Each structure stands twice: as structure tokens, then as C-alpha cells.
């Protein structure tokens, strides 16, 4: 892994240094810099790529372990039109934790079947209650509420829960047995307010789409988020698995579930809003050793709706970061950098086609861009090998790695235009937009 990472990272740094030298030469009267400035800015905007490799799981010193063991932990699981088998596996994984939790709060947000009748999980509920009758097992509550959205489902039980740490867990996700134990370790540092778990695709080999999603998740889950964690400024915890100091969540009750944007109720990006509260109060980190396996969309329509929902919600959250976080802080400027990156992606092709001296080199520039994009995609795909999975053979992992440029092409051709559209329509945030019935089964 070290050798595989050193080669592209060295090339990455050499690329930046070469264009910096070219730019300096053009400014001091040497050869014209050409595209040197654009390339150099692009290099600087990818600051998170090398930094992500510095991430290590956070540990707790022996003196802090008694305090961590004494924490009261509540796991909250919102449920809406979930596959019963997936929900059963989710709950079972909570009960099998090496560090037991004290409470499990399940809230069914008014699930319905295909014909609109109430869809209940009586068998799953009865099984959970049967397994938690003993004195040493977690306290369990199971509520059913009218359908009002994930945030209301969460705060129905968390607003008055006196736990020390809240764990948010999606109902289509399965915890590694050590997930809670590892996720609590960063709280040994009193400055840490929230912890993101590492998200992996559970149904990774279901079809071509889920295989590609494995790769598409990496730049964020093990790239940008890892780099942000090194700085203690993770901006978005995946709602799939996240840990929060409970007083921060309780303090947001009444506001969090009633967030609006342009007069419309915000029904998405609940995870980024909770992380935002954590950012305002202290450090937010990622714990790569706290693993959760989630069901990814298996049909293109489901996947694209999910992406549009995430993109619109993230656009709104960008505005919140720019407005409420300090202009001297990392999050503010990395948000600005993201928009600069988008603008460069649009401006550079226009500049090349508009200038005669560059237009003649468009083939060379295009080839350079493809080479760099391919190298970057392979660099990020190396993160596949940082987790050894018993349900993924070496052949499967190597095949995924080989297909990394395909995911990069999908990101450029499909996801980037979608993102631009999502930015322009970010006000459409009052509908969940993903699940009207059970869409992915275990």
C-alpha cells in the first residue's frame, strides 16, 4: 500500500511543482506560462488528496477508557418503507456490539405498503423485544408516527433522551461488531463533538451499478472526509452511522426538525445539519475503524434520485457554511475552493476554444487532462484496499480498482451536469424524493 501510494503521490506533487516553476518563469520574463496558472490552481484545489492519506483511527488512552465505558449511548433508527430483512439485520448488528449500547430507539415514520395501507413490522418488533428482555440488554422503545420525515422521527425520541452520546443509524445498514466501540474513542478528546463512521457498500456485488457505487463513494468517504478529519473539520457525517454529543442534538430540538429554505421545509441533509451544529461547538472527525455496511441503490432511477437529493441538500448547506462559519476558518475557504473548482471546469474549456494560441493545442490539453484524471482516479481507488472484507475476494477488489477510470468518467459526464442542475434547483428541498416503497432488499 505504501509503495502503491508513494508513486502517484510523488507524481502528483511533481506535477504541481512543475507548473509552479513554469508560472514563476513566466512572471520573471521567461517562457510564457500558457495553462500553468490554471493547472496550478487545479492542483491546489485538490489539497485533500494527499492529506487524506495521513488519516489514522483515533485511539483512547487507558486513563480515558473508564469515562468512555460510563457513557450512556442511545442508538436512534428511523424507519420508513424498509425491507424487513434489512431492518432485522440492522437491529441484530446493534445487539452484537462489543461495547453494548444502553438504549435503542426505533421510530417508524408512517410506513405504507404499495396500496397505501399502513405497513408495520410486527414480527421484527416482537423479535427485538424478545431479545432484549434480560436485565443486561438495552432498553428498547418502538414508536410509530405519522409520516413527517426523518428529522421528526429522530427528534420524537431524542429531544428528551438524557443519554451522553446519540448514535444515528440508518435502517438499511449493518454495523461491524466493533463499530460503537471504535466510534466512541474520539470522544476521549473533549473538543470532539461528532464522529462519522466509515460507510461501505453492503450489496457491493449485486450488479454493475453497485460495483461502481463502491468506487464513486471513495473520493468523499475516504478522500475529502478523511482529509477534513485530519484537520478536525468534517463537514458532513453520513446519516448511515454518526455519533454526536447528545447535549448538542438536544439543544437543537425544535429548530433542527423545522429548518426551512426559501420558505420551504428542509426534508433532506439531516446529517449535514447535525454535523453543522457539531462544527459550531467544536471538532468533527471521521473514525475509519468504525465500520457500517449500507445497502446502495440497485436501479439507476433510485440512484439518480438519491444523488439529486444529496446534491440539492449539499448546495443549501454550502450557503449555511458560508454564512455562519468564520471567514478565517478551513470550512469557509474549502467551500469557496469547491466553487472555484466548478468554475474552472467550465472556464478552462471555454478559454482554450476562445484563444487561437491555445486552440491549436486542444488535443494535447485534452490528453493531459485525461491522463491526470486517470491517475487521480487510481490514486483514490487505492483506498479500496484499506479495508479487508471477508465478502470481497482479491479478484473482485482488483477488478474494481482496474475500473476506477470508468467511475471517474461517470462522475464527469453524468454527476457533474446533475450537480449544476441541482445547484440551480436547490429550492426543491421539501420532498424526500427517494423512497415511496421498499426499493432495496437485503
TrEMBL record:
Citing just one GO molecular function, the answer is: hyaluronan synthase activity
**What are the residue boundaries of the Glycosyltransferase 2-like domain, all occurrences included?**
75-249
Listed GO CC annotations = plasma membrane
| Cross-referenced InterPro entries | Glyco_trans_2-like, Nucleotide-diphossugar_trans
List each coiled-coil range: none
Question: Subcellular location, in the record's words?
Answer: Cell membrane
- Which reactions appear under catalytic activity for this entry? N-acetyl-beta-D-glucosaminyl-(1->4)-[hyaluronan](n) + UDP-alpha-D-glucuronate = [hyaluronan](n+1) + UDP + H(+); [hyaluronan](n) + UDP-N-acetyl-alpha-D-glucosamine = N-acetyl-beta-D-glucosaminyl-(1->4)-[hyaluronan](n) + UDP + H(+)
Pathway involvement of the protein, from the record = Glycan biosynthesis; hyaluronan biosynthesis
Q: What EC number(s) does this enzyme carry?
A: 2.4.1.212
Keywords in alphabetical order: Cell membrane, Glycosyltransferase, Membrane, Signal, Transferase, Transmembrane, Transmembrane helix
As for what it does, the entry says:
Glycosaminoglycan synthesis. The hyaluronic acid capsule is involved in the pathogenicity of group A Streptococci; it may be the major virulence determinant.
Q: What is this protein called?
A: Hyaluronan synthase
Amino acid at each position: 500500500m505504501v509503495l502503491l501510494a508513494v508513486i502517484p503521490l510523488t507524481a502528483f506533487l511533481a506535477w504541481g511543482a512543475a507548473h509552479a516553476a513554469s508560472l514563476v518563469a513566466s512572471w520573471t520574463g521567461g517562457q510564457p506560462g500558457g495553462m500553468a496558472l490554471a493547472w496550478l490552481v487545479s492542483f491546489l484545489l485538490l489539497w485533500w488528496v494527499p492529506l487524506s492519506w495521513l488519516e489514522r483511527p483515533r485511539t483512547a488512552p487507558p486513563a480515558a477508557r473508564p469515562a468512555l465505558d460510563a457513557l450512556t449511548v442511545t442508538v436512534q433508527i428511523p424507519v420508513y418503507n424498509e425491507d424487513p430483512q434489512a431492518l432485522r439485520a440492522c437491529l441484530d448488528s446493534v445487539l452484537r456490539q462489543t461495547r453494548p449500547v444502553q438504549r435503542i430507539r426505533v421510530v417508524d415514520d408512517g410506513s405504507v405498503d404499495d396500496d397505501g395501507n399502513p405497513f408495520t413490522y410486527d414480527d421484527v418488533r416482537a423479535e427485538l423485544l424478545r431479545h432484549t428482555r434480560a436485565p443486561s440488554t438495552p432498553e428498547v422503545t418502538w414508536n410509530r408516527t405519522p409520516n413527517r420525515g426523518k428529522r421528526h422521527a429522530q427528534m420524537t425520541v431524542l429531544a428528551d433522551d438524557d443519554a451522553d452520546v446519540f448514535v444515528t443509524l440508518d435502517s438499511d445498514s449493518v454495523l461491524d461488531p466493533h463499530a460503537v466501540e471504535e466510534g466512541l474513542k474520539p470522544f476521549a478528546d473533549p473538543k470532539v463533538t461528532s464522529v462519522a463512521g466509515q460507510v461501505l457498500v453492503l450489496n457491493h456485488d449485486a450488479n454493475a451499478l453497485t460495483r461502481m457505487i463502491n468506487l464513486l463513494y471513495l473520493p468523499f468517504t475516504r478522500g475529502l472526509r478523511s482529509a477534513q478529519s485530519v484537520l478536525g473539520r468534517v463537514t458532513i457525517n453520513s446519516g448511515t452511522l454518526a455519533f454526536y454529543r447528545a447535549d448538542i442534538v438536544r439543544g437543537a430540538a425544535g429548530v433542527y426538525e423545522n429548518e426551512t429554505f426559501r420558505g420551504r421545509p428542509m426534508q433532506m441533509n439531516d446529517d449535514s445539519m447535525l454535523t453543522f451544529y457539531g462544527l459550531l461547538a467544536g471538532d468533527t472527525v471521521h473514525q475509519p475503524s468504525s465500520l457500517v455496511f449500507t445497502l446502495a441503490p440497485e436501479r439507476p432511477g433510485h440512484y439518480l434520485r438519491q444523488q439529486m437529493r444529496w446534491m440539492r441538500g449539499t448546495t443549501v448547506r454550502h450557503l449555511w457554511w458560508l454564512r455562519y462559519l468564520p471567514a478565517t476558518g478551513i470550512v469557509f475557504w474549502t467551500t469557496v475552493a469547491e466553487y472555484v473548482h466548478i468554475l474552472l471546469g467550465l472556464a478552462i474549456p471555454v478559454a482554450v476554444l476562445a484563444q487561437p494560441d491555445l486552440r491549436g493545442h486542444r488535443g494535447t490539453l485534452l490528453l493531459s487532462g485525461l491522463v491526470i484524471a486517470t491517475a487521480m482516479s487510481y490514486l483514490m481507488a487505492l483506498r479500496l484496499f484499506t479495508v479487508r472484507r471477508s465478502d470481497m475476494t482479491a479478484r473482485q477488489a482488483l477488478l474494481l480498482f482496474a475500473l476506477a477510470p470508468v467511475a471517474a468518467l461517470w462522475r464527469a459526464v453524468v454527476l457533474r451536469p446533475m450537480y449544476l442542475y441541482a445547484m440551480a434547483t436547490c429550492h426543491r428541498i421539501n420532498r424526500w424524493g427517494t423512497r415511496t416503497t421498499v426499493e432495496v432488499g437485503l
